[in-house]
Amino acid sequence: MPIQTDNLHIHTLRPLPSPVALARELARDDAISHTVADSRRAIRAILGGRDDRLLVIVGPCSIHESSAALDYAARLAAERRALGDRLEIVMRVYFEKPRTTVGWKGLINDPHLDGSDRIEDGLPMARRLLLEVNRMGLPAATEFLDPILPQYFADLIAWGAIGARTTESQIHRQLASGLSCPVGFKNGTDGGVQVALDAIRSAAASHSFPAVTAQGQAAIATTTGNPACHVVLRGGHHGPNYDAAAVAAVVAAARKAGVEPGIVIDASHANSGKDPLRQPAVLADIAHQIRTGDSAIRGVMLESHLIAGRQDQVPGQPLTYGQSITDGCLGWEETRAVLHDLADAVARRQRAAA
């Protein structure tokens, strides 16, 4: 009897539908396609300094309940319509959660919140939600973590992120080089931006690597490179990096590296000391920089939900509707106030430049 040397730690292998099969079952229509394409075009122009508006990526830390996410999306879509001459508002729709050790990995991996890991249920749930959000005329943003999963929903994403833990990963730089949307690389967890600048240069180049086709077959992908990659400042172990001095330092480092940074500032994570209630103070500082003429800051990110804070899952107890189960978020009314303050700051910058 031969000695087994493979799959020693694989318990089961369950089939998934091919990306093209799921896309046919849950297809985008022309209106949704226009929402995605138009927002991508606007984001590229903002990041490149050709559009004087501000990109705002806002929404829950992670999506765990579709009904609350759509409730939030409807409110945000109304703000997008009202503030569209100053802000390009994109909803944060994050389905994958990187974990330092173990924990809930997100809606796609564990859609039923019970450890059953029914990815075959999570993928259609995620795609269906993205269709509904885009149908409202509200574009969506997400973080790309698993290199295979984008085939299932990347056609519905206007902006993507590569997280601080994966910015240095060659696999994720290759992935970004082939994505159709603009991609933001976060600075490293230590706060250093050089890894993000290196990632921008790498993702702008052509790469060849093993991949999975829309039909679910193994293949070799060769990319053209993605010219719409940029830096996301999220602070680090040594403190925040959203102030004017930090922004100027990034601009200088980017100039030395020969890249356009297209700076987006994440008001959460280390920039707020992981305290969601400090996000408005961070954004107020950014708004002040914009009011006084800063043109290097092209966008902001914030974590926001219907209800402020966060909650733990407790067996046998219902979850609070519209409150995060991962990182704490800003509440809706506080979020709306922040959006209007940012819009006012952009308006003042626009008037000064006219």
Automatic annotation (TrEMBL):
The EC number on file is 2.5.1.54
Q: In which pathway does it act?
A: Metabolic intermediate biosynthesis; chorismate biosynthesis; chorismate from D-erythrose 4-phosphate and phosphoenolpyruvate: step 1/7
One GO molecular-function entry: identical protein binding
Q: Which InterPro entries match?
A: Aldolase_TIM (IPR013785), DAHP1/KDSA (IPR006218), DAHP_synth_1 (IPR006219)
Query: What is the enzyme's class at the highest EC level?
Result: transferase
Tell me the leader sequence span.
none
Offer a single GO CC term for the protein: cytoplasm
| UniProt-listed GO biological process terms | amino acid biosynthetic process; aromatic amino acid family biosynthetic process; chorismate biosynthetic process
Q: Name the job this protein performs.
A: Stereospecific condensation of phosphoenolpyruvate (PEP) and D-erythrose-4-phosphate (E4P) giving rise to 3-deoxy-D-arabino-heptulosonate-7-phosphate (DAHP).
- This chain's protein is named Phospho-2-dehydro-3-deoxyheptonate aldolase
